[in-house]
Each structure stands twice: as structure tokens, then as C-alpha cells.
Amino acid sequence: MNMSVGHVQGLAVLAALFGIASAIFWMVVGWRAMRAHERIADVSEEAARRLREAGK
Hints:
Layout: H1 5-54
């Protein structure tokens, strides 16, 4: 396979861009999951508080 330096550099740039895009994508996915888990925790905390108050 005969690849010139320009082709190798182009491939390196594409790989770097793909890596950056992939990292940003997974940061967004993680952030959304964290927000969803916070909402679930808030709802369960509120439910537990209401059960404690109902038992008094």
C-alpha cells in the first residue's frame, strides 16, 4: 500500500476529529443520564418524605 505523507496526515486529522466528536457525544449522553438519575432520586425522595409524613 503506497500512501503519501499527505494521505497519512489526512487520516490522522480524520481520526482526531472522530475522537473529539465521539468524546463530545458520550459527554452529552452521560450528562443526560446524570440529569435523569437526579430526577428519579428527587421523585423517590419526595415519595419517601410523603410516606414518613403519612405514618405520623
